[in-house]
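Q: Protein A?
A:
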Amino acid sequence: MQDQEIASVFLSDSESKLYPYKVKMEQVKTELLKFGLSQNQAKVFIYLGKYGPKSAPEVSKALEIPRTETYFIINTLQNKGIVTAEFSTPIKYSTLPINEAIVTLVKSEQEKVKILASQEQELTELWNDIPAFIVETSETKKEKMQMLQGTPQINSKIKNMINQTKEEIFIFCTEKDLSRFYYADFLELLSSSNSDYKIIISPTQRMPEHAKQMDKDKIKIIPGSKWGNLCFLIRDSDEVLFFLRNSDHPSHNVFAMWADSPPLVSSLRMLFELCWINSERMY
């Protein structure tokens, strides 16, 4: 393919012979966004990776990105360690192999997390040195809610709920949700917790493999599909996390609502207890 053809992949329609490549490139671009790249950064990375090395003006022309923005993007990708420059005139740029680039991006994010974690105590002490200027009373306390999008944010909230459980935590989920909970180490966290828990899995005809290692008296299933893809967690009758988009969606599109509203928590708790009575053990 010619340089111009490669660039036109991003703009090809469903009738074009290049369209299958566009679909795959869009999938790659979507995945790269999860590693902290912007839309155009991912686009430049793909272009250089599949038709590099190229100079900045060549990238700008091929992808129809303003030249100043192109230089900024390339510089950013260099700083991330996934694009290299050749000693030539004009300077040409190329990418690391995709596997090396991913490892580099992951390590970079891990370093950022380590730095933030190391600053936790310092920031907490600084925060505590500042007095609170509001006196909270029964009149000022309000029910709260929080919208959470993306697996990292939701997983962090769930782990916090499990760790704060004093008496019991109830989980109603699909088999796909249970699989994600397993790989996020939630099931291990529940098993090692001193608090009680109950899990209902619906719809399914059999006990999932991930659940077979847990206490069989604490897990039931509902074979029917009338509950669809319902998924929620209740902690100590104090708070609830309800998935509006669960594991049927890509991890970055998962969406949930957390709330400590007593009527909402009470309603979902009653629903769970009713389902528990009518669910089945499969051992």
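Q: Protein B?
A:
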Amino acid sequence: MRIFKYFITLACILVVALSSAQSTRLKDLASVQGVRSNQLVGYGLVAGLAGTGESNSKFTEQSFRSMLNNFGIKIPENVSIKISDVAPVVVHAEMPPFAKPGQNIDVTVSAIGEADSLRGGSLLQTMLRGIDGNVYAIAQGSLVVGGLGVEGADGSRVTVNTPTVGRIVNGATVEREIPNDFNLTDSITFNLDRADFTTAKNVADTINNIYGVGSALAQDAVSIRVTAPRDPSKRVEFLSALENLDIVEGKEEARIVVNSRTGTIVVGSNVRLRPVAVTHGGLTVTVNEDPQVSQPAPFSQGRTTVVPNSNIAVEEKQGRMFKLDTGATLDDLVRAVNEVGLAPGDLMSVLEALDQAGAIEGRLVII
């Protein structure tokens, strides 16, 4: 009896091991609804440029005057300001979920005027706002610019990468937390990265098998609603257990994707072909122009003329036929194509013909 139980336990372990080897963690398949990053954007000034800033911009001068007014420095309207060392910029950042006041995030700074380069500049204090108009972070610091631009006196110029865009690592400080409803409901909703009814059902079944029937409900091909505790600590522990569950994914749709611009062809592993015979030949027509010069007879009244002479050659390549049997797979198709030696352009024509003949068990997508 003990030996029988031992073999039963060993068999269960092997089944679990095999199933986990062919499965994917839930956290790699889906995201939690409401747990997302938010975009922030702001307008600011970069100072300290070595003459690569604005040449003559009214709105940059107006921004610079406004900044000086904030420090109690008022410049008369009839006094011009040198702004070649200043550039107006747009600052944008991604605020991660649950970011708390005092934490730092990276920012990207992009010139929006006539500045030639932001290299060596420093971003002055800039407020970053959300879509609701509220300020959520303050950005400031020295830029790291990977680009380089050099211009000669004769107008020649060399530009490497993009010198008008830079980054500031940890350049913004979070000032306000973005509210969320993570702890306000009795459930958590997982949204699959790719819609699939089979995967959604497998997620719900896996959770129900562990936590009881009714714990999870697949609402559609993307969303799975899971009942969860409201207590924050228990909810975090519960979510940690859920996102590490191994889920068996549903098989992808049988699809062949053809990029007509680059000649790239991707054939999915689930594509099957019905019995079909294919032949493909090429006809090459070559036209060479070899004009001849016609000279008039001596002491005649004729004129020298150019007489067109065209040579046309037609070459037909011998087409080879290959046959694909019932249930031919991707390997069979690739092997047959390699034997015939089709170029990407020819293979596109063959795939289109196979699709028109109804020989492809899948969908042909041309982009």
